[in-house]
Amino acid sequence: MSHAALDAGRTSLAILAVAASSSARNAFVVPGPELVIVLGVAVPALSALFGVIGILLGQLLAPTPAVPLGWRRRSALVLALVMFELGIVIFTGQNAMLAMGWGIGLGFAGLSVAQALGDEALSGVKRIADAFITAIASRVGGKESDK
Q1: Over the chain (147 residues), what is each successive 10-residue block's mean pLDDT?
Q2: Which of 35, 55, 45 is nearest to 102 (CA)?
Q3: How far apart, in whole angstroms, are the C-alpha atoms of residue 73 and residue 92?
Q4: pTM
């Protein structure tokens, strides 16, 4: 590999390292837009990118689920986690490294959290359906007992 290619690689890594460790106290210039407007919402480009990378890394680091997901469910889970991560980045204004940390945490635990929320929603629907069936059965049973 030539020295020019090594220098270009080092420069790219230095830009990413500085961008990732940025905060309000130090200013630097990152090539590209700082904010991207999506449907009228200002999205911090670098933080959003690092958050999405964090989710993908978290998915790779996560233990294998007990029940394997198909590619459609895995894709839907990753899409939901990306949307949640972008919401965090947009509304809290996190810097890039913190967004990556959130992303890794969401990617790692996202399947467990989604399964827990799904189980709770399913049990809630079952409780509502049972209460509805019990109410109808008591009304039907009451009318028959009056005859």
Answers
A1: 57 60 56 69 79 84 73 84 83 79 82 77 91 89 55
A2: 55
A3: 28
A4: 0.54
